[in-house]
Design goal:
mainly alpha, Multidrug-efflux Transporter Regulator, Chain: A, Domain 2, 3-stranded antiparallel β-sheet, two-stranded antiparallel sheet, about 55% helix, about 10% strand, elongated
Length: about 150
Amino acid sequence: MQLAKAIPDKLFFKIGEVGEITGIQAHVLRYWETEFAQLAPQKNRAGQRVYRRRDVEIVLRIRQLLYEEGFTIAGAKKKLAQEMRGGTKLKVVTGDTAPEEIVSEPHEIPPPPPAHPPEFRQMISRIRRDLEQLLTMLNQNDIRGSVHH
């Protein structure tokens, strides 16, 4: 099994990226989502999984419990739940770094951004409307294109 890589400094990750970082195949990640309540990536409008950094950290801990410490799924579920409930620090070793300490407490939610002037909000609304129209057109072309193939 390949060693995990350091987690890149970004907010969101696609399932393929999580697989590359953690060394876990996508079908295994999807299965773990059904077994571990703590692992619950969001889905975007297209239905694709969007993992946050915290989700990647949880995947790394599950990987460690199952593959390195020899826990069963049931045992790993119980251990992970205890660790996250107790606020203990999870130790995760990645391939190119020393052990990382991951605090199992929820991340603080950043304060809301400052209010923008009305012109800015109007401009954003126009851009959003244009993008939604573009997506609709692209989806219609995909449907038409798939009928002819």
